[in-house]
Design brief:
Layout lengths: L1 H12 L6 H29 L1 E5 L8 H8 L5 E8 L5 H9 L8 E8 L2 H11 L19 E4 L4 H65 L18 H27 L1
Antiparallel strand pairs: 1-3, 1-4, 2-3
C-alpha cells in the first residue's frame, strides 16, 4: 500500500518541483501584468502632466535655481534649458567685462509639472510678474515670461530637440562640405597661379638670355685704322758698304799702279 500511495505523496508534498513550464509561465504572466500596470500608471501620469514654456531665462538662473523657485508653486518633474548659442556669446562677454555673471547662460526653457492644472495656474499667476525673492538676488527685478502649452507633452519636446539636433548636424555637414569644396577650389587656384608664375618666370628668363645673345651678335666689331708714316730707311749700313767699296777700289788702284811701275 505504501508503494501505491508514494506517487500521490510526492505530488502533494513537492508541488514546486513539477514541470518547469508550470513555474515560468505564471511568473511571466505576473511580470507582464506588472509591467502593463506600471505603463498604464505612467501613461495616466503623463496625461496629467503639463508643460510650461519660458521664453527668457535671466542671468545666473540655472535649472537648480529655477526648480527651487517654481517648486514653491507646484511639484515639478523635468526641466530643460537651452544654453546660449554663439549669437548670444557677445552679450555674455560684455557681462564678463562688466564684472557680472561669468557662468553658463540660457536662452529659453521648458518646465514639466506633474499636474497640468497646476502648470496652467502657475503660468497664469506668474506671467508678467516680478520674480522677487531675495533682494540680493541677481534676478530679483526680472519679469517672468512663462506660458502654459496646451496639449503639449514632453515627448513632443524630445522629438523637437532631436529634430533640431539632426537639422543642426545636417547643416554642419553641409557647411563643412562647402568649406572643404571652397578650400579645394582655392588650392587649385593657388596651384594654377604658382604654375603660371613659374612659366612666366621661365619665359622672362629665356627672353632675357635671348636678348643678351642677340645684343652680343649685333654688336659690330670696331676696326681701328691708324695712319702710319713711311718707314725710315736705315742709311747707316750704306756708308759702311760704300766705304768698303771705296777702300777696295783704292787698294785695287794702288795695286794696279804698283804693277805698272814695276813693269815699266
Amino acid at each position: 500500500m505504501y508503494d501505491e500511495e508514494q506517487p500521490d505523496e510526492s505530488d502533494d508534498s513537492l508541488p514546486g518541483l513539477g514541470n518547469a513550464d508550470d513555474v515560468i509561465i505564471p511568473n511571466d504572466e505576473k511580470q507582464k501584468k506588472k509591467r502593463k500596470k506600471i505603463l498604464l500608471e505612467e501613461a495616466k501620469k503623463a496625461r496629467n502632466r503639463g508643460v510650461c514654456y519660458l521664453s527668457r531665462i535671466p542671468p545666473q538662473m540655472d535649472p537648480v535655481k529655477l526648480r527651487q523657485v517654481l517648486s514653491q508653486h507646484g511639484e515639478i518633474d523635468r526641466i530643460y534649458l537651452v544654453p546660449e548659442t554663439k549669437q548670444q556669446l557677445p552679450q555674455q562677454v560684455n557681462r564678463k567685462k562688466a564684472g557680472d555673471f561669468r557662468g553658463q547662460g540660457y536662452e529659453e526653457g521648458w518646465v514639466e509639472f506633474t499636474n497640468k492644472r497646476v502648470a496652467k495656474r502657475v503660468a497664469h499667476m506668474l506671467n508678467g510678474e516680478q520674480m522677487g525673492g531675495r533682494k540680493k538676488s541677481s534676478f530679483f527685478y526680472d519679469i517672468w515670461n512663462i506660458k502654459y502649452l496646451s496639449k503639449f507633452k514632453w515627448e513632443d519636446l524630445t522629438e523637437e530637440i532631436a529634430y533640431k539636433h539632426a537639422l543642426q548636424q545636417q547643416k554642419l555637414v553641409m557647411v563643412n562640405s562647402a568649406a572643404k569644396k571652397e578650400k579645394e577650389i582655392y588650392m587649385d587656384k593657388v596651384d594654377k597661379s604658382n604654375g603660371l608664375n613659374a612659366i612666366e618666370e621661365r619665359r622672362k628668363k629665356k627672353q632675357k638670355i635671348q636678348e643678351q645673345g642677340s645684343a652680343e651678335q649685333q654688336e659690330p666689331k670696331v676696326i681701328r685704322h691708324f695712319r702710319q708714316t713711311r718707314p725710315v730707311k736705315d742709311d747707316s749700313a750704306q756708308p759702311k758698304s760704300q766705304m768698303s767699296r771705296n777702300v777696295l777700289a783704292g787698294v785695287s788702284n794702288h795695286i794696279s799702279i804698283s804693277l805698272y811701275i814695276c813693269n815699266a
